[in-house]
Design brief:
5-stranded mixed β-sheet, 7-stranded mixed β-sheet, 19 strands, Rossmann fold, Archaeosine Trna-guanine Transglycosylase, Chain: A, domain 4, alpha/beta, Transcription Regulator spoIIAA, 11 helices, 3 domains
């Protein structure tokens, strides 16, 4: 059946022609293409105002991003065959980059599969279908992954906040095989048990792989504080690289249990301990006890999820980083990260500078980190470039 057209207003095709993949609702000529006429996830041919076809997209009139381009060939729909091809292309990059099967296999728009995220944990895959367009293709996505990788199990972690914005229900379900509660992975020569069914997001955060490797490079002999530790990705990695003591702070007792298990898994249980509680309160308590550390790692959840949260979120980043600096000795290292796209790198750097000057300390940025290569950046979509990580020396001179 021929695809219906989605007509754009005059001159609104320029971003698509320059490489972008998104269509915003205010760019659509709704007199010719009423968004309410399309079913959520329906595929359409996007056309310029002059009628020239630009490619195929799926649409959702309930979302500000009402269209996401899946092909620049007007006759090429996103189906199981194209999914298989795109997944194979994504796999070829990861197999070139990594020698073990632990990575983000598909990163949405950056792998030309908008709305789809797939993390690989050996022979188990965790999938997020974040848009109506991908939800419609649920069975085709599972079949394509099965064909390309023959996994033991596939878990659908359809519980991201993005689904609510798309008008989709939230839930976690097994799509293939029997999904274990915990799987073991290896990252930077450190082993971790990762909770798939009950963990945060897909269970693990591959995006900081290289930043954690940098921490391992400098952690030997240090007393390290890992704030917002989750299951110990930073802290256990530091201990396994020779840190003399690691303290992990997290609000989840379950996460700290896994910190202890992961420390034991790597033979460093005697050097890792946990503190359960709110990060801000815990830092204040440590300061009251006059504790000091050689390195403090701050990797919080996104304090700025939407642009309107910017003012409040920036203040939260300032407070947590200033509190972290107060726990450093006279020549300490601060590793500070942000996954908030709306906190731009320059603003983050300025925030760290202001925090250090408020304490009459000097800041030296030693390294600047980004997301790992299994999270490639789409050069036309700045939102795909979101991780910032500054490794800084905080010194009194």
């Amino acid at each position: 059946m021929e695809l219906a057209p989605l007509h754009l207003k005059k001159n609104e095709e320029r971003r698509l022609r320059n490489g972008h993949l998104w269509v915003y609702s205010n760019e659509v000529d709704i007199a010719r293409s009423p968004l309410g006429d399309f079913a959520p996830g329906q595929q359409v041919v996007v056309t310029a105002n002059d009628g020239k076809a630009l490619g195929v997209a799926y649409v959702n009139g309930h979302s500000l991003i009402c269209g996401r381009l899946v092909s620049r060939t007007p006759e090429q729909r996103l189906d199981q065959s194209l999914l298989v091809h795109r997944i194979k292309v994504a796999l070829s990059l990861r197999e070139r980059l990594f020698d073990k099967p632990f990575y983000r296999l598909v990163y949405g728009e950056s792998d030309f599969l908008p709305g789809l995220v797939v993390d690989r944990f050996g022979d188990v895959l965790v999938v997020q279908l974040n848009t109506a367009g991908m939800e419609v293709l649920r069975e085709e996505v599972v079949a394509a992954l099965d064909k390309v990788l023959k996994p033991r199990a596939i878990l659908l972690r359809n519980d991201s906040s993005m689904r609510a914005q798309e008008g989709l229900e939230s839930g976690v379900e097994t799509a293939l095989g029997n999904v274990p509660e915990v799987v073991e992975i290896e990252e930077n020569s450190t082993r971790f048990e990762v909770p798939l069914l009950s963990g945060q997001k897909t269970g693990w955060f591959y995006d900081h792989r290289l930043n954690r490797a940098r921490v391992q490079h400098i952690a030997r002999g240090m007393r390290v504080l890992d704030v917002f530790s989750y299951i110990g990705g930073w802290g256990v990695a530091a201990a396994s690289a020779g840190a003399r003591e690691v303290v992990c702070i997290d609000s989840s007792a379950r996460a700290l249990d896994l910190v202890a298990r992961n420390a034991t898994l790597n033979g460093v249980a005697d050097r890792v301990q946990g503190i359960e509680g709110d990060a801000f309160d815990a830092l204040k308590a440590l300061r009251g006890e006059r504790e000091q550390f050689d390195m403090v790692i701050v990797d919080p959840p996104a304090f700025i999820k939407r642009r309107k949260d910017a003012k409040k979120g920036i203040e939260a980043y300032r407070r947590i980083n200033q509190a972290a600096m107060q726990l450093l000795g006279k020549d300490g290292m601060l590793v500070s990260a942000s996954c908030s796209y709306h906190l731009q790198r320059d603003n983050f750097r300025e925030l760290l500078l202001q925090s250090s000057r408020h304490l009459d300390r000097n800041l030296q940025i030693v390294e600047q980190g980004h997301q790992g290569p299994d999270h490639p950046v789409h050069p036309a979509i700045v939102e795909t470039d979101y991780i910032k990580c500054f490794t800084s020396r905080v010194v009194t001179v």
